[in-house]
Amino acid sequence: MMISHEQVRYVSGASAPILLLAGAPVHEALPVLRTVDGAVPALAGWQLMARLTLCLLDGPGEAGCVLPTLGSEAELDAVAAWCAQVERTGGALVVSLPRRSDLAGPLDWAALLDGGSHGGFAPAAS
C-alpha cells in the first residue's frame, strides 16, 4: 500500500534516523511504542529499505507500506542525508501516529510515548 507524502516525515535524529508516519494503515500492525531500559526495542519481523526515490517498510505477513521520499527537489539533500543515516545506523526508529494532524510540529517524546503511538526500531533491509 502506498502512503501519501503528507503522511510521512523523515527526521535525522541524534543517534538514529526517525521515520514518522501519521494515519498510516500499518499503525495497528505495529506494537505500541515503548522504551525498555531507555531504548526502543527492535520491531520483530519488520525491515526498512530506504532509498532516495522511495522507502519500503515491510512487516510480517501482509503488513507493510511503500513511502514516497521526495515531495520536491528542495528536499533532495535532506532525504539523501536521512537515507545515508539509515544505512550507517543499520535502520531507523519508526513512529506511527494515529492521526495526520499529529505529524506537524516539533517532536515531543513524552507525548509520543503516552500509548497512542506505535513503532520501534526497524532494521535496514540487507
Account of the 3D structure:
The chain is an alpha+beta fold. The protein contains two helices and seven strands. The strands form two sheets. It has a four-stranded mixed β-sheet with strand order 1-2-6-7. Strand 4 and strand 5 (64-68) form a beta hairpin. The radius of gyration is 13 Å and the shape is globular. The mean pLDDT is 89.
Please write out the topology.
Elements: E1 8-11, E2 18-22, E3 47-50, E4 54-58, E5 64-68, H1 76-89, E6 91-97, H2 109-112, E7 118-123
Parallel strand pairs: 2-6
Antiparallel strand pairs: 1-2, 3-4, 4-5, 6-7
Which oligomeric state applies? single chain
SSE series: EEEEEHEHE
Unreliable parts: none
DSSP E strands, number: 7
**Main sheet: which strands, in order across?**
1-2-6-7
